[in-house]
Amino acid sequence: MTTATVSRWDRFRESFFWYSFKRDKIAILSTLVLLLMVLAAIFAPWLAPTDPYDLAQINIMNSELPPVGLDGADAAFPLGTDAQGRDLLSTILYGTRVSLLIGFGAVLLQGALGILFGLLAGYLGGKVDAVLMRIADVQLSFSTLMVAIIVGAVFKASFGNLMFGEIAIYMLIFIIGVAEWPQIARTVRASVLAEKKKEYVDAAKVMGFGTGRIMFRHILPNTLSPIFVIATVQIANAIISEAALSFLGLGMPETQPSLGSLIKSGFDYIQSGSWWITLIPGLVLVVLVLVINLLGDWLRDVMNPRLYKG
């Protein structure tokens, strides 16, 4: 490590952020669990016993086998199998990767839209602010899931089930991202309204800097703290939205496992006794969303000294 790298690491360790993190056991545990789940999802092709996308590795005769420890279990399938005969451990690993990809992708999209529109509305003001915020208000008057259901249904009817299944990941990222951008836009706008009155913005104007440079190079870096907090929570919301849409049949198809589609695929088999097909992916979804929300709450408290009690 170079001297500069060591110096940056020392400053980070001495920072309030690091100090508060190492004293918060819930934040540490949540980070470890989330990191473990992300790494398991990334390395799913190497960790999963089978490939749920490879039909040659699926045997319908192995369908609905219970997890190890129950009568009729097979040691080759530690978490059992689903109704199609797929290894449940493998489908959960691949499904977690899909859910995380949709969650992060949707937040990146809504972050890009929200930051852009929030900066324009807050800095330019006037008619631009009025138009953008009225659009945001109209969209916020509907629930996020309702907007996603309407847009998802339109896309599915337009492309058909087969075509929609092939581009389902990109469609879900687009649908959820577009449905959630007003929350980030309103937060950014509020921060910009406070920042643009400060002296450094006046100094940038006097020096002849353009509007774009002032917004993105000077004001935006000073509005990032609330964006990080919202983005963390929005990842969890996007994952829940994907699960809800998949459960309603407007998300990932059953042939492309996500946590939501896995829960849906096993829902019809609960009463027949194959509870693990829905329960185990459901527990994974709950844990994933819970640790992300706990990290979001910790970030909110740390980045707001008036709320932090550490």
Can you walk me through this structure?
By secondary structure, the protein is mainly alpha-helical. The protein has one domain (23-44, 86-303): MetI-like (MetI-like fold, Orthogonal Bundle), CATH 1.10.3720. 72% of the residues lie in helices and 0% in strands. The protein is built from 13 helices and no strands. The chain has helices at residues 3-14, 16-23, 25-42, 44-47, 88-124, 126-140, 144-166, 168-195, 199-206, 211-219, 224-247, 259-267, 276-303. The chain is elongated. Belongs to the binding-protein-dependent transport system permease family.
Write the layout of secondary structure elements.
Blueprint: H1 3-14, H2 16-23, H3 25-42, H4 44-47, H5 88-124, H6 126-140, H7 144-166, H8 168-195, H9 199-206, H10 211-219, H11 224-247, H12 259-267, H13 276-303
Helix pairs in contact: 3-5, 3-13, 5-6, 5-8, 5-11, 5-12, 6-8, 7-8, 8-11, 9-10, 11-12, 11-13, 12-13
Order of helices and strands: HHHHHHHHHHHHH
Rounded mean pLDDT score: 83
Look at the structure and name the CATH superfamily.
MetI-like
Helix count? 13
User: Remind me, CATH topology?
Assistant: MetI-like fold
Query: What is the second-level CATH architecture?
Result: Orthogonal Bundle
Number of domains: 1
Structural class: mainly alpha
Distance between the termini: 32 Å
CA-atom Rg in angstroms: 23 Å
Question: Which residue ranges are poorly predicted, with pLDDT under 50 across at least 5 consecutive positions?
Answer: none
What is the level 1 CATH name?
Mainly Alpha
Helix percent band: over 70%
Instruction: Name the overall outline.
Output: elongated
The percentage of residues in β strands lies in under 5%
